[in-house]
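Q: Here's a chain of 212 amino acids. Please give me its 3D structure as tokens.
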Amino acid sequence: MVKAIKYPRTPHLPWSPGASSDDVLLIDTQMFVGKQVVISEKMDGENTTLYTDRLHARSLDSRHHPSRTWVKQWHQTLAHEIPQGWRICGENLYAQHSVTYTQLSSYFYGFSLWNVQNICLSWAETCEWFALLGICTPPVLYQGLWDEALCRHLQIDTQVMEGYVVRLAERFAYADFAQSVAKWVRAQHVQTTQHWMFAEVVPNQLRGNNDE
């Protein structure tokens, strides 16, 4: 059985209004200076990791929950295509959390692909693999040389977006995650009175209103 690896905590950008007292907040963005980056929408789902022989949520011992039924069934259709020792990380978007989606292309959006050496593949490689596997990726808001002023002034509709994620465009090691990825989260992101895990599961909507 492939060893399960927990997805790391993503540090907040210095100007992220959604950072809480127990979050990691970057002092500056020197780690991105002079480098190619990809900024994509941060999807409001459940962090999920897929292997060829299993899957799990952020917690490695995550138990069954009705919101995970779809992703478990879907995983069975492509698990044999995932190389041994590799893993796909993304968002299980089946259940509504704080953001309601009405035009999803799928209930799973992948954002990173890791090989057997525990290296996160480049964004270009990731997109190529995901295209072959039929995996959707979050909308890209910017791709190019790091520009902090541009990043700070991205137009984010916080009514329909949780935030955005910045990652290095090139490959990076698991040990370098905290120096390679950062996020911006809207203020008071959780806008529901009850945690989604304990509420009735309400599915998000797919584009075309199909049941994929």
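Q: Can you summarize the key feature?
A: The beta strands are 36-42, 46-50, 55-57, 87-92, 108-114, 119-120, 140-145, 163-168, 172-173, 181-185.
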